[in-house]
Amino acid sequence: xxxxxSAVGVAVVVMAGTxxxxxxxxxxxxxxxxxxxxxxxxxxxxxxLSIDGSQxxxxxxxxxxxxxxxxxxxxxxxxxMTATFAEGFVEVFPEASQSEVEEWIGERVGFSxxxxxxxxxxxxxxxxxxxxxxxxxxxxxxxxxxDLVSVQDGLAYEMVDGFAVLTDNDAALRDRTRQMEAxxxxxxxxxxxxxxxxxxxxSLAVAWADVSGALATGELATELELDGVGDFDGRMTASxxxxxxxxxxRMDAFAFQMEGxxxxxxxxxxxxSVDAMASLPESTIVAVGAAGLDQALIDAYDSGELPLSGExxxxxxxxFDAWGAPLPGGFTSLLGSSSTLGITSMDLNGLFNQSTYxxxxxxxxxxxxxxxxxxxxxxxxxxxxxxxxxxxxxxxxPPSVTAEGDTVxxxxxxxxxxxxxxxxxxxxxxxxxxxxxxxxxxxxxxALEGTDVxxxxxxxxxxxxxxxxxxGRRSSLELRWAPSGGG
Length: 487
Known about the structure:
alpha+beta
């Protein structure tokens, strides 16, 4: 479990170290890297720390919530972000002088990859690339880059509209020019611009990919080991941003299909999964919730939209029949109109150190694992049969199955009173996730208790939301960390 705070902590400390400079930035406009990269690119990424004032305020609010042990590690405030970019530049090109780079480097950087039939430009992989770095002093940048090219193998550059365009050889630079002449700039492409228009405002980092375009580039797909992944189609964006309450990484997919099947069958599902989780006990460590998933599965089953082979479908039908829940109505029998699973206690430190004795635990009596499953409108008898047939450990009592009004509750072990929905950290983490088809919650305060973090209560929680909108043409995955420090 130490990997969670370590990974999150490193990412946040790096980001938080940029906050102080962000609030002093005055130039929030200017050209973006996509203006000098070709429109036929199949992948693009951008890091832009010239953020607006409202996002700077959000960054400062987020820093106030960070665990004390992270804020103690932050560097002193710097005057601007050029030092951050210059440091990254020198890490890639150690021969460069950081102090000199700081004098000309700007606060935007982007890259793109595009298909190329020029063997020299693409180095035999069917695609070329370029990195566009904003510059504030073109003359000084040229002097520095010329010196760098003379000692650095595999580097070529040219100055274009306020950017230093870097790639691995002159042929790739010439190919970029040809592609720009033939296709125009990526910034002017309607599909690309439309996809990025939906990226949350104030994002610090943005990425975009045309999945089908990349797979169509045979050599590139082979190089990336994607040629055996099957039939994929669609486009994707990814972004990272900071709200005053949380750090969010988001991925959106547009017109995405796999083997000719999309996720349109989930588009009519009501976004009430967060509300479903709110009914779990306040002691919940891990929670997963869904609402309307049963009807979505029924519709997909009836229309043949579930990605199942004939054999897989037959096996699933046989399994549900054995539970007394013939399909398609069996989906509702098990899931109800909304369902949520919460783990209310578990031995996280010992979870990965259990033997296979007695089903994975050396002593079943010491099995510190409790859970609650709540399904509104489910069939109590079906769930009772499911539990009975699923129980494999003869040395422990099976979960209990009871009814609370129209809700069937399957539980094992003790749970604290109170509702998860009343927890301020749960509210902080899961806010504005009203469209989620499936949602998840992971309480770091409890999970990190007893580990080497200084104060587990300051680490808040992780949140997850999956949503499908626009009749299935768009699907989103949001991952959040909402710290609870600042005391």
